[in-house]
Design brief:
Elements lengths: L1 H11 L10 H6 L12 H10 L6 E8 L18 E8 L5 E8 L6 H17 L3 E5 L6 H22 L16
Parallel strand pairs: 3-4
Antiparallel strand pairs: 1-2, 2-3
């Protein structure tokens, strides 16, 4: 009887006798985590088409919106914890030029449609361009590159027009003798 009382008391305070195996601790060390692929086969295929742009731009796959967008109101920040398939930045990473979503058949279900609408809405309110490609279309490399360049070229032009030029040593007005 005393043994039962001791076991009950030890169990009450989560204490074990030395000869008892602590099953709860061993169960806590069993996790259901596993490594998965960084990109889907469709995303890898699409990324390989984008590689030609890497001479002029930086391409970042699987970018989290919270990395590039912030909210004035700190409530509901979790809506920013969504990944975008690809982001295109200037070579110095100072300017985000374009976000790209690659929609496969999984984007047809209602949950994904709501997610895609939310992402589009967030990007629109943040003033960030978002372009969508669909895997059901061939998306030939030249078409993809041309469509992206057409979208980001005006941004590059406006960036270069807003930078203040350095004084030139060949400017004839500055080099005149007095």
């Amino acid at each position: 009887m005393i043994n039962k009382i001791i076991k009950w008391f030890l169990n009450l305070f989560k204490l074990k006798e030395n000869n008892e195996k602590d099953v709860s601790i061993s169960n806590k060390n069993t996790y259901n985590y596993y490594q998965k692929n960084f990109m889907t086969p469709s995303e890898i295929n699409f990324y390989n088409k984008l590689k030609d742009l890497e001479n002029d731009y930086n391409i970042v796959p699987q970018l989290n919106l919270a990395s590039i967008i912030d909210k004035k109101d700190s409530r509901y920040r979790t809506e920013l914890f969504r990944n975008i398939d690809f982001a295109i930045f200037t070579k110095d990473f100072k300017t985000l030029l374009l976000l790209i979503e690659l929609n496969d058949p999984s984007h047809e279900n209602n949950k994904r449609k709501r997610r895609d609408f939310k992402v589009k809405d967030i990007c629109q309110h943040a003033g960030i361009k978002l372009m969508t490609f669909y895997t059901k279309y061939p998306n030939e490399k030249n078409y993809v590159i041309q469509r992206i360049r057409k979208e980001i070229e005006p941004s590059i032009t406006s960036i270069s027009n807003t930078t203040t030029p350095l004084p030139s040593t060949t400017n004839t007005e500055n080099n005149t003798l007095k």
